[in-house]
Amino acid sequence: MGSLYTAAASYLDARANGGRWLLRVEDLDRPREVAGAASGILRALEKFGFEWDGAVVRQSDRSEQYEAALRSLHERDLTFACSCSRLQLEDELRYPGTCRGRRAAVGLPTATRLRIESGLVPFTDRIQGNYRQDVAAAVGDIILRRRDQIFAYVLAVVVDDAAQGITHIVRGADLLDNTPRQIYLQRLLGASQPSYAHVPVLTEPDDSKLAKSRRSVHVSVDSPLPQLLAIFSLLGLAPPESLLAASVAEAWGWAACQWDIGNVPKRLNLRVSA
Q: How far, in Å, are 26, 101, 144, 187, 242 from residue 62 at the CA level?
C-alpha cells in the first residue's frame, strides 16, 4: 500500500500539471532481484490504471552510462578506491575517510567513493519545506560503485534523471536525507536539479515503516477502485461516494482535476488493525 500511495502521488502530480510520467525499473542489485518481481509490478500498475509515457527504462541495461559518469569524476580526481568492508565500518556513524589519502590495498576488492567536501547543500521540498544537509558531516565520502562492482543507487538515479530530462520528482520521505547527496553529485556532473516533493511514509502507530512491518498492507489487483479511493483520501483528496460506481479511469480523471500537492500532509500515520 505504501508503494501504491507514493506512485499515485507521483502520477497525479504529473497528470494534473500536464507532465509526462516515466517508469524506470531500478534493478541494479541483480543478485538480490526476485524473479518475476518487475513484471509483477508492471502488471499491478496496469490493473490500477497507471499509464506511463514512453518505454520502460531498466537500470540493468545502462551500465555504460554509469561507467562514463564514473570515468568523468575519476579524471577530475573526485573519486578514490576504498577497500573497507561493511564489517570494518559497522561501528562508524559516517565514513571516516580511511582510504581517502592512501593507495588501494593490492589484492582486495575495492569500492569507488566520491570525495565529499564540507558545506551545506540546501533545497526546498514542495511538501516537507526547507531542508539542508552537510553531506560530509552526515555520511562522509559516499559509495558510487560497491566492492562487488554494482553501481550505487545515488549514481544511477542522478545519471538517469539527467538522461531522461526529469524536472519533477515525487517520492517517499524515506529518501529525503538522500536528496542532498544527489544534488551534490548533480552539480559535479553538470546536471540540472529537479524539483523535489517527498510524501510522508505510511507508518505504524509506533512510527515503524508500514512496508517493513509484520502488518504491511498488500494491495489486491482484483479490486483496484476501493483501494485507489482510499489512497486518494490519504493524499488529501475527498472522493465522493459517487466514485464507487465509476471506472478506474474516471476515478483518476476526477483525482487529477482535484489534485493540490499543498494538501498532502507532511506526516501520516496509518492505523492498521492487527
A: 10, 31, 15, 21, 45
| Domain range 62-165+174-195, CATH class | alpha beta
pTM: 0.91
pLDDT at 13: 98
Domain boundaries of the chain, sorted by first residue: 62-165+174-195
Residues linked to residue 125 through DSSP beta bridges, in sequence order: 129
3-state secondary structure the chain: CHHHHHHHHHHHHHHHCCCCCCCEECCCCHHHCCCCHHHHHHHHHHHCCCCCCCCCEEHHHCHHHHHHHHHHHHHCCCEEEECCCCCCCCCCCCCCCCCCCCCCCCCCCCEEEECCCCCEEEEEECCCEEEEEEHHHHCCCEEEECCCCCECHHHHHHHHHHHCCCCEEEEEHHHHHHHHHHHHHHHHHCCCCCEEEEECCCECCCCCEHHHCCCCCCCCCCCHHHHHHHHHHHCCCCCCHHHHHCCHHHHHHHHHHHCCHHHCCCCCECCCCC
User: Which tens digit of pLDDT belongs to each residue from 168-202?
Assistant: 999 999 999 999 999 999 999 999 999 999 999 88
